[in-house]
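Field log, afternoon session.

UNIT: design team B
ACTIVITY: writing a sequence onto a fixed backbone
BACKBONE:
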């Protein structure tokens, strides 16, 4: 069962998402919050698998709530997905840097929304490569500055990070590198540990910020 926390200051938005999620046999909404501070408290109380967090809220906004969840060892299993009305913007990029696993635009189709929740629950990033490139190209400082010590990665780990940034899954990375999926996962996980990345989305951001991967125009 996928346990979901809804954090949004608009009751109508929360009720709409709750209705969608409650109709699914494998998803349970464990709590709702109207601001980031309450969301953080409820995350600690309920330990959800997914926290759907609005980016702009009173008391504590979604970016700071994400940062605090990501920094709390007790919440290491909570995957934050940012909800936004605006699509690609600096708020989304800052949320990804803070530790969000991805983002969803609120006018998403219901079937795509449910699929995204399940993808995030598996620990996969909700970022298409084209979206990642647009975000990085628009918001990362140039020239690239190191956000993680990529020099500490092995050649295989560096290769795996580049492939993650291109949007490949562990199985696809394994095929590309001619290794087993387990070994591919090991390379990715070790790179995340060395670069202090919370998840694959943050690993992608670090890959671009450090210059390991270069955004294409």
């Amino acid at each position: 069962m996928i346990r979901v926390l809804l954090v949004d200051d608009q009751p109508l938005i929360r009720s709409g998402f709750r209705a969608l999620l409650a109709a699914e046999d494998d998803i349970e909404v464990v709590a709702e919050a109207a601001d980031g501070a309450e969301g953080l408290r409820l995350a600690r109380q309920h330990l959800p698998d997914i926290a759907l967090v609005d980016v702009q809220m009173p008391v504590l906004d979604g970016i700071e709530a994400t940062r605090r969840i990501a920094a709390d060892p007790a919440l290491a299993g909570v995957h934050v997905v940012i909800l936004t009305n605006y699509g690609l913007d600096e708020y989304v990029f800052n949320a990804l840097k803070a530790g969000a696993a991805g983002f969803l635009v609120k006018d998403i189709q219901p079937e795509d929304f449910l699929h995204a929740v399940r993808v995030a629950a598996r620990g996969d990033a909700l970022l298409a490569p084209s979206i990642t490139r647009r975000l990085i190209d628009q918001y990362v400082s140039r020239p690239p500055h190191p956000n993680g010590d990529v020099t500490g990665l092995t050649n295989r780990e560096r290769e795996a990070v580049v492939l993650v940034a291109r949007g490949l899954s562990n199985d696809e990375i394994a095929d590309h590198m001619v290794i087993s999926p387990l070994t591919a996962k090991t390379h990715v996980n070790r790179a995340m540990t060395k670069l202090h990345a919370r998840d694959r989305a943050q690993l992608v951001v670090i890959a671009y910020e450090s210059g390991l991967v270069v955004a294409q125009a």
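LOG NOTE: The beta strands are 2-7, 27-33, 50-54, 79-84, 102-105.
NEXT ACTIVITY: expression trials, pending approval
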